[in-house]
Amino acid sequence: MLVVDDSPDTMAVMRELLSTRGYDVVVTANAANAESQIRQEAPDLILCDVIMPGKSGYEFCKELKANPSTRLIPFVLTTGLSDREARLRGIESGADDFLSKPIAPEELFARVTSLLKLKEFTDELENAESVLCTLGLIVEGRDPYTVGHCERLAEDASALGRHLGLDGDAVVALRRGGYLHDLGKIAVPDEILKKGSDLTLSEWQVMKQHPATG
């Protein structure tokens, strides 16, 4: 867990509180140092002050949320500001939650626990996606006529998406689709899949079911 705050007292209190619950806590005084720390090891959660020398918490949060490699890290803004405009700006920057200073320990623990559960869930989804893409390549490996086909389709589809000006999520979806589009071939018997041409009518009927199976 990463705490970013230019106040030594706040850093000490946050580290002490979170450590009592068994969390590994790294503290740093500004966004530049935090960025360096994240490059070394991505944290499971970031607690960041809004007003700091150099880059503000808003700016830091917005940059991390725009980066595909860090956007799923839960980001909590800690601030003494309580006006509506400050919170709206935090929402616009992509913050997952807010904590008002002075921070109440029980509220801190509740927010942290909730966001870490969410992070665990998103990590599980990413792992499942990795398994599915690997499975897609394994299925492709069964068919001697389509070696490299999934990877080529994934690259071409995502390149086309970027050319059309689609947003990042859509381009990622196209890439995933390229890897997974033939997944249903896992249900096609080898004697049909590897036969190549001259399939009988009944064999074609089996082969044509693979998109629905996928």
Features:
10 helices; five-stranded parallel beta sheet; 214 residues; alpha/beta; 2 domains; Hypothetical protein af1432
Could you please describe the fold and organization of this structure?
There is one protein chain. With 214 residues, this protein is of the alpha/beta class. Helix content is 58%, strand content 9%. The chain is built from ten helices and five strands. It has a five-stranded parallel β-sheet with strand order 2-1-3-4-5, sandwiched between helices. Helix 3 (57-66) links the parallel strand 3 (46-49) and strand 4 (75-79). Helix 3 runs parallel beside helix 4 (84-93) and helix 6 (149-163) packs antiparallel against helix 7 (168-180). The longest helix has 38 residues, at 105-142. The mean pLDDT is 88.
Topology (elements, then pairings):
Blueprint: E1 2-4, H1 8-20, E2 26-28, H2 31-40, E3 46-49, H3 57-66, E4 75-79, H4 84-93, E5 97-100, H5 105-142, H6 149-163, H7 168-180, H8 190-193, H9 201-207, H10 210-213
Parallel strand pairs: 1-2, 1-3, 3-4, 4-5
Helix pairs in contact: 3-4, 6-7
Poorly predicted regions: none
Number of domains: 2
* Separate helix tally: 10
Spell out the helices and strands N to C: EHEHEHEHEHHHHHH
Question: Mean pLDDT, rounded to whole units?
Answer: 88
Q: What is the CATH architecture descriptor of the largest domain?
A: 3-Layer(aba) Sandwich
Rg from Cα: 24 Å
Q: How would you characterize the largest beta sheet?
A: 5 strands, parallel
End-to-end CA span = 39 Å
**Backbone shape:** elongated
Task: Classify the secondary structure makeup into a structural class.
Answer: alpha/beta
Helix content: 55-70%
CATH fold-type name of the largest domain: Rossmann fold
Q: CATH superfamily of the largest domain, please?
A: Response regulator
Strand order of the largest sheet: 2-1-3-4-5
Work out the number of β strands: 5
- How much of the sequence lies in strands comes to 5-15%
**In CATH's first tier, which class of the largest domain applies?**
Alpha Beta
